[in-house]
Each structure stands twice: as structure tokens, then as C-alpha cells.
Amino acid sequence: MNTARLEYALRNAEFVPDDDRVWRWVAEPRAARTIVKFELLADLQDKPAGSEIRFDSCEKLGAANLRGTGFAARDIVVRQMTAKIGGVRYTVGVKVTGLAGFLLSKTAAAYSRRKPKDWYDIAFVLLHNDAGGPAAAAAAVKAQFSADLAHVRTALEDLAANFTSAGAQGPQAYVGQMLVDHPDLDRATLAADAIVAVEEFSRSLGVP
């Protein structure tokens, strides 16, 4: 990766560096309400987890060393996306992380940084993925990363342990965000959905 060129491209696209994080750049288009964040992550075994990696050839750009994010780079699928720009409709192929890579990278992230958004993301994707649910998601993980499961077993066991009851931080994170987005939903039902989804996913992977 030519990091200097990437930094130039971000500036040219009107992104600005976050004041506190070299790995995050932000764009706030004047005509849109959405804030776009560009975050650059690394999975380097020879650097401390959670440390910032600064690029010598860049003024502000860097990366956050987050364990497990390498799974996302090893499971890539191409999605066709269409947008209208200046009255002209464009369709491009965009590389995104596949279901297996997303779930393992999120599981590793949840284990290392304990953030509610990671627990929420895992439960939501297990419940609403295109593959067909938690068991299908586990099958995708086994098909893509069967040789790696022993290395992430501790993180997978930690995931299961954090979704054992409605009061655990996993279901609480899922319920909290879902009620923000859908305040009419039932709290107890949401918690039960999250618990069952993670239990089925874990059991399918052989995690008690």
C-alpha cells in the first residue's frame, strides 16, 4: 500500500483527520446528513494490541492494531453497488468483507476491547444475515476458517459466555441499540433473540 497516496486521496475527497486518532478520518458532506468515517486497521502480531501504527511517509495517516481484524481481509466478496452522480447512473464492484470474516473479526474485537457496538453487531448479523441465520453463519465460518478456529477458541468461548442471560453485556448491548432504532419492540423478546442466536452459532462451532 502506498500510504502517502492514500492520505492524498483522502484529503482530495475532503476527509479530515480525527484530532485524537491517526487511524480515523471523517467527512461531513454539506449536502448530506450522514457522517462518513474512514478507519484503517491492522493485525500485526509483533505490535501491542490496541497500539497506533504511524506511517513514516504520511503527515497524519496511521492505523490501529486490532487483533483479529486480519480475518476480514481474508474473506472478500464483491458486491455491485449503484449510485447516480450528476444525473448519470454508475455501477461498480466494491470489495467487502464476507460473513465469515466479519463474524470472526468482530468476535476477536469484542474479546479485546469489550465495546457494546461489537456485541450488538455480532448478534444483529447472526439474526439477519443473508445466509439464513446463526447455523448457516457458523457453516460459513467453518468453510472459510476451519484451520483457524482453534486459535480463536478463547474469543469464541468469551462470546458465548457474554450471551448467557438477559442481563449479560451481549444481550444488553443488542437490546439497547435495537430500542434506539425501534422503540416499539419488546425488550425481553430482543434479549431472548440475541441469546438464542449466539447459542446456536456457538453450538454449531463446537463451543459449549
Protein described:
By secondary structure, this protein is an alpha+beta fold. It has helices at residues 3-12, 70-73, 99-113, 116-128, 134-145, 153-161, 169-181, 187-204; strands at 16-17, 24-27, 36-39, 41-42, 52-54, 62-65, 76-85, 88-97. It folds into two domains: 3-66, no CATH class; 99-204, no CATH class. Helices cover 45% and strands 19% of the residues. It has a three-stranded antiparallel β-sheet with strand order 1-2-3, with no helix packed on it. Strands 4-6-5 form a three-stranded mixed β-sheet, with no helix packed on it. The longest helix has 18 residues, at 187-204. It starts with a helix and ends with a helix.
Overview features:
about 210 residues; alpha+beta; 2 domains; 8 helices
Strand content: 15-25%
Q: In this structure, how is the largest beta sheet organized?
A: 3 strands, antiparallel
Query: Can you tell me the residue ranges where pLDDT is under 50 for at least 5 consecutive residues?
Result: none
| E-strand count | 8
Rg measurement, Å:
19 Å
What is the chain-wise order of helices and strands?
Answer: HEEEEEEHEEHHHHHH
- Estimate the helix proportion, in percent: 40-55%
Give the mean pLDDT.
Answer: 91
Query: What is the SS-derived class?
Result: alpha+beta
Q: Distance between termini?
A: 41 Å
Largest sheet, spatial ordering of strands: 1-2-3
Count of distinct structural domains: 2
Number of helices: 8
What is the overall silhouette? globular
